[in-house]
Amino acid sequence: MRLLTVIAPALVATSLTFSAGAMAAQTVQITGLYNTGVDALGSPIADNAVDAHWSLTAAPVGYTLGNTYAAPVNGVFPVNGPWLSNTAVSRWLTPTDSAANHAPGQYSYTLSFVVTPSQLASTGFFTGRLAADNSVTSILLNQTALTVPGGTNFNVWSNFGTTSGFVAGLNTLTINTLNDAGSSGNPTGLRLEFLSSGITDSVPEPATWAMLVIGFGLVGASLRRRKAVLAA
């Protein structure tokens, strides 16, 4: 009787130690970082369709804020002449459902994503590339200015990224673009692709959850045995 009473607490301690050790941190991809012009699965959206992830947050007078739209297919002005071609990875976004002509001035495109409570915001990072008509004036992560690559334009990619500026909870990435003055046929747009991202996450993987379940199962079994011994 006495032997079982002594073994049970030891088994409990061993199981708890094992379970705690299984809670190892890991680097995971940041979810919610969507390229421009794609759906939730990363596939291109239809011509002139609304992008569900990026929104228009600033524009010259006369423009409605909110939705952003996929630019036309390759070969239809201005895509692939003079803009970079759309691909299966990303598409151009414009402030209206027609990319033919837009007023000069600043246009701002914003993407929102969440850093969960289990993730360490200070460890976040991402890299990407962008193009804009006519140029990118600033890049803001939660209103913190990131380095703007030099020479941003509509016919070449420019790389950018950050290793800081993330916060717990809701995060916003805003790309401010400038459309220069021009005659008719003066479109503006943004194209962006994320190349990599990561953040430290302490949530156990499925295999770890299985080990935790086994550990707590052993704890429960040992407690039941102890109660049976004490009752006897």
TrEMBL record:
Transmembrane segment boundaries: none
InterPro entries linked: Ice-binding_C
UniProt keyword annotations, A-Z: Signal
Residue ranges annotated for the Ice-binding protein C-terminal domain, each copy included: 202-226
Range of residues in the leader sequence: 1-24
Protein name: Ice-binding protein C-terminal domain-containing protein
Organism whose genome encodes this protein: Sandarakinorhabdus glacialis
